[in-house]
Amino acid sequence: MDSRSKPHRTPCKECPLQGLESLRSMTTDQLSFMQQFKQGEMSVAKATQVLVEMSISPHVYTVLAGILMRFKTMEDGRRQIVNYVFPGDLLGIQGAMQEPLTHGVEALTEATLCVFSRDRMLELFREQPQLGFDTTWLSAKEEAALDEHLLALGQRTARERVAYLASFLFMRGKDTGLTRGHTLKISLTQTQIADTLGLSLVHTNRTIQAFRRSGLLVWSQNELMIADIDGVMDLAKYEHMSFRPRPFI
Description:
By secondary structure, the chain is α+β, with helices and mostly antiparallel strands. It contains 8 helices and 13 strands. The protein has helices spanning 28-37, 93-96, 121-127, 129-155, 158-175, 190-197, 201-214, 229-236; strands at residues 3-6, 38-44, 49-51, 59-65, 68-73, 79-85, 90-91, 104-107, 111-117, 179-180, 183-185, 217-219, 223-226. It has a 5-stranded antiparallel beta sheet with strand order 1-2-9-4-7. The protein has a 4-stranded antiparallel beta sheet with strand order 3-8-5-6. A hairpin with a 2-residue loop joins strand 10 (179-180) and strand 11. Helix 5 packs across helix 8 (229-236) and helix 6 (190-197) crosses helix 7. The radius of gyration is 18 Å and the shape is globular.
């Protein structure tokens, strides 16, 4: 794993996630608890696998910066990308509940993770019940997102699927302060897009090129540009739910 663990670099009281409109700021007491609960930070290089399927992670992570993806791999090597992870999201919670992870996690961009010990998760629930509830809430919303992704695979056309994924990623980026105007910086290959949407690489490429010609959205390997997000969301039949303010730990 190409990553480096670091001691506390960002004091919890100066956490950049505290300033995001879409995230619920912690109280002074919660910040004080998290400062001693936090084990450190980990810098992760692009394309690094952070969590391995069927392992029990000794740590739980909160994404402080960057974008990652969750995926499942079949025995023959085929892969299904099941979700994307943005700042404020939680990683490794299944391991925290002493169950093997049913998915792997890989960094799509350089990322920074806050590191927590799995063995201390019961302490979080005992000492900070609201944060414990927030942990459960985040897990429930992950399940809700998977339901929406399943709908995208089962009922949407190829054009609607690409529009849906573009809308989902762009709006999550907007909620977490990663978009700049009409653009989200994200390194996503057409193979990875195909692995998310259940399309062939050829079909994915044709659909993305058709969008590029229309000018509605342009999806390159390093960024996603959407000229009309409302139009793309309407095409995808997708209604984004911001859940503001969203908790994090």
